[in-house]
Design goal:
12 strands; transmembrane helix; ABC transporter transmembrane region fold; elongated; four-stranded mixed sheet; alpha/beta; about 600 residues; ATP binding; 18 helices; 2 domains; six-stranded mixed sheet; Rossmann fold; ABC-type transporter activity
Length: about 600
């Protein structure tokens, strides 16, 4: 095995975050996101000022109670009550700003990543040509949400403590000297370094948690997607074993992560809360025990008590701010995991859109010795022609199915493609559809939109009956092309499905078409879709296997009438008369391209 795996994205969490912010989350200097960041900062400042005011006013109220001064008590209480609405507004403006900022971050991330993911065939390449990202749906939904939530929470959880530290250090230094806050800041530094080193596994454990959550989600979605096939096989017990195995793997990791978090929680509480409080009591006691302190010496006991309440509470708030800042490191470690996941996704999407793939290769064929490689072939666009010149058919794993394929098909030359499973039929069509890169030679084909593919199990989109016929166009695009509902009804008539618009009450009917339509109806809808698009060439991959021979014949005759040249994968003998050439693969790397003269018996019946 040769492994071409991507290493983890380079750079620290800060560097990765700064790139994501500059390129995706806040791409412009003057933006609503920057305005919200400023609003949050202003709300945090207002909240810190409110905290100081409440400490001072609460101390005044308590002093009036102790001194039994009823008039001053009433004045202080009214003043306290009158400020509460403004404080409540500040708190809720802060909550709204954080929530709105998270939504905007998620919107920007989602729009950017979906634009990259759905650019060209990137969504196909990620799951079929590149194996660096597993379960992209998990990354594009759950992980984006958690990343944005973690970023916004971290912003407020760091800014508020930092602001509190600056304000309380200034107030305490001005009144009590620099020794008291200095002790706490020194404690902040050493405790922060200590806890940061202990939390290092958090990022790795978070990445693994999201990966296992994605795998568990995937095995559940497989059950829903393939429920009918599983039911026919009575495979519920086997599927239960698969799902429970994935779940147990997830639970084992979550339990391990939980045990780590509990251990870290005990240390966090001790270091960031309890010991910080002890250090705070010690620090605040020093000026009160000084014999010649300029502010406290000579004060009455009541004044000393009042000042202790004021400065003691400030010191408690300072200790709490230091504790929150230390604990913010825990959220930063968690953010590191989500940041690594988001960075890897953006890097892989950019590389896929640039035509670079990375996949585990199996060197059991002639790829290792051949002068070929993914993307080394040439691609030329030309109307009314499909031509392969010395093109190898190679799977993403590196298996060479056909070493040197050569044929030319002009408009009007219908071709029947046949051969055993795994011989290269689907590979040929994936190269034609630009889903797979060309490994060598030269491919000439019509431009995009002039080559259409219909699989054996046609795709039914979410939407109306009309949407099934015109897919991937929208109703507006249909009108711009000059098509009408009458045209669509004529296509339904050609495939003998006019009863559908009566049964489903019109073209605007919305149903779960995958379940509502039978296999034959879905295949005929796909042919109506082909007639609507009217391309130069069409690839029909066993797409009429559930359709009667007479209906099938009329559809093929219409294709020839409107000059749609066909590449058909089928073993039905009834289709010979609708084709002019055959391309047969033997499954051992050889092929034959020749006219159909009626004597070939190898196609089947």
């Amino acid at each position: 095995m040769q492994s071409f795996r991507t290493s983890p994205p380079d750079g620290t969490v800060a560097n990765q975050c700064s790139i994501l912010f500059a390129e995706i989350i806040i791409p412009r200097k003057w933006s609503a996101e920057n305005g919200l960041l400023a609003l949050i900062a202003a709300a945090l400042i207002a909240r810190s000022i409110s905290d100081i005011w409440m400490i001072q006013n609460a101390t005044t109220i308590e002093s009036t109670i102790i001194t039994m001064n009823k008039s001053q008590f009433r004045t202080a209480l009214v003043k306290y009550l009158s400020a509460l609405p403004a404080i409540a507004v500040v708190n809720n403006v802060l909550k709204w700003s954080i929530g709105e900022l998270k939504l905007r971050f998620r919107t920007n991330m989602s729009q950017y990543l979906y634009a990259e993911y759905l650019k060209g065939f990137t969504y196909y390449k990620m799951s079929n040509l590149d194996n660096r990202i597993a379960n992209a749906d998990q990354l594009l939904t759950t992980d984006i949400d958690k990343f944005c939530e973690s970023v916004t929470d971290l912003y407020s959880n760091i800014c508020k403590p930092l602001l509190d530290i600056v304000i309380y250090v200034y107030r305490l230094t001005t009144n009590l000297g620099g020794q008291t806050p200095g002790i706490l800041l020194l404690y902040l530094f050493f405790s922060g370094v200590f806890l940061t080193n202990l939390r290092k596994p958090t990022g790795r454990l978070t990445v693994m948690e999201q990966k296992l959550e994605g795998e568990f989600r995937y095995v559940n979605s497989r059950l829903i997607t393939n429920s009918e096939e599983i039911a026919f096989y009575k495979g519920n017990n086997r599927e239960k074993l698969t799902i429970l195995a994935s779940f147990n793997k997830l639970v084992a990791h979550l339990r391990k992560f939980l045990e780590f978090r509990v251990g870290m929680g005990i240390i966090d509480n001790m270091v960031a809360k309890y010991i910080a409080t002890v250090v705070g009591f010690y620090a605040v006691s020093l000026p009160f025990f000084e014999e010649n302190h300029p502010l406290l010496t000579g004060s009455k006991a009541g004044d000393r008590l009042s000042k202790y309440y004021t400065f003691g509470r400030m010191l408690v708030k300072l200790a709490e701010a230091i504790g929150r800042l230390v604990l913010a490191g825990r959220e930063m470690s968690r953010l590191a995991g989500f940041t690594a996941r988001m960075t890897e996704l953006t890097v892989v999407l950019k590389e896929l859109n640039a035509g670079r793939y990375e996949r585990t290769m199996v060197s059991n064929s002639s790829v290792a010795d051949a002068e070929i490689g993914a993307g080394k072939g040439l691609l030329k666009f030309q109307d009314n022609l499909i031509k392969f010149e010395h093109v190898p058919l190679v799977t993403p794993n590196g298996d060479v199915l056909v070493k040197d394929l050569n044929f030319e098909v002009k408009s009007g030359m219908n071709v029947l493609v046949c051969g055993p499973n795994g011989c290269g039929k689907s590979s040929l069509f994936r190269i034609l559809g630009e889903l797979w890169p060309t490994w060598g030679g030269k491919v000439t084909k019509p431009p995009a939109g002039k080559l259409f593919y219909i699989p054996q199990r046609p795709y039914m989109t979410l939407g109306t009956l009309r949407d099934q016929i015109i897919y991937p166009h929208t109703h507006q695009e249909m009108k711009r092309r000059g098509k009408t509902d009458a045209d669509l009804l004529s296509y339904l008539d050609l495939v003998q499905l006019t009863y559908l618009q009566v049964r489903e009450k019109g073209l605007d009917a919305i149903e779960d078409w995958i379940d509502v339509l039978s296999g034959g109806e879905k295949q005929r809808i796909a042919m109506a879709r082909l007639f609507y698009h009217k391309p130069q060439f069409a690839i029909l991959d066993e797409c009429t296997s559930a359709v009667s021979v007479d209906v099938e014949g009329s559809m093929y005759e219409y294709c020839r009438k409107v000059a749609i040249t066909l590449f058909t994968v089928s073993h039905r003998k009834s289709l010979w008369k609708h084709h002019d050439y055959y391309l047969q693969f033997d499954g051992h790397g050889a092929y034959e391209f020749a006219p159909i003269d009626g004597s070939e018996q190898q196609f089947g019946s």
